[in-house]
């Protein structure tokens, strides 16, 4: 935003933010956890969040292929495999006869994991970020 074109103004905002505490070691400036879909860095929309929180909702649509998020087809078993990332590591959720069944398993696991991470980092998050993570749903 125009307001942050002044480094002094930006620095003043930064020093007041939850999660900054003088140095953002392990923290990242996020622009869309307070206002979903936001594209502009501004005081109203931004918050410092731990890296683990910022990476929770990354959409890798380009790398996904033809199946719904969390789903791939396993030729060997002629089934759809559901996988979710939990603390940065892939977790196999099972094999399913339909892509929809695999996606449903992914949705349940992903939403549960996001709520868990929100509660783990509760005291380090802007209150709106925490609330939005608790309410977040796979779209």
Offer a concise description of the structure.
This protein has 139 residues and is of the alpha+beta class.
Count of distinct strands: 5
**Strands of the largest sheet, in order across it?**
3-4-5
Average pLDDT confidence is 91
Largest sheet: 3 strands, antiparallel
Which structural class do you get from the secondary structure elements? alpha+beta
Poorly predicted parts: none
- Any idea what the shape is? elongated
Question: How many whole angstroms does the radius of gyration measure?
Answer: 18 Å
H/E element sequence: HEEHHEEEHH
Distance between the termini: 28 Å
Q: Per DSSP, what share of the residues sits in E-state strands of 2 or more residues?
A: 15-25%
Number of helices: 5
Percent helix: 25-40%
Main attributes of the structure:
single chain, 139 residues, alpha+beta, three-stranded antiparallel β-sheet, two-stranded antiparallel ribbon, 5 helices, 5 strands, elongated
Describe the structure.
The protein is an alpha+beta fold and 139 residues long. It contains 5 helices and 5 strands. It is 34% helix and 20% strand. The strands form 2 sheets. The chain has a 3-stranded antiparallel beta sheet, with helices on one face. It is elongated, with a radius of gyration of 18 Å.
């Amino acid at each position: 935003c125009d307001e942050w074109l002044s480094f002094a103004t930006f620095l003043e905002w930064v020093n007041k933010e939850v999660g900054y505490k003088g140095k953002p070691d392990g923290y990242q400036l996020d622009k869309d956890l307070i206002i979903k879909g936001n594209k502009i860095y501004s005081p109203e929309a931004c918050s410092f969040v731990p890296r683990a929180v910022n990476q929770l909702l990354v959409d890798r649509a380009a790398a996904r292929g033809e199946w719904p998020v969390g789903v791939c087809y396993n030729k060997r078993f002629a089934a759809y495999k559901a996988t979710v990332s939990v603390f940065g590591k892939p977790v196999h959720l099972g094999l399913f006869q339909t892509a929809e069944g695999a996606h449903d398993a992914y949705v349940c696991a992903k939403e549960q994991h996001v709520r868990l991470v929100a509660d783990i980092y509760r005291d380090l998050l802007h209150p709106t970020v925490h609330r939005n993570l608790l309410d977040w749903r796979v779209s």
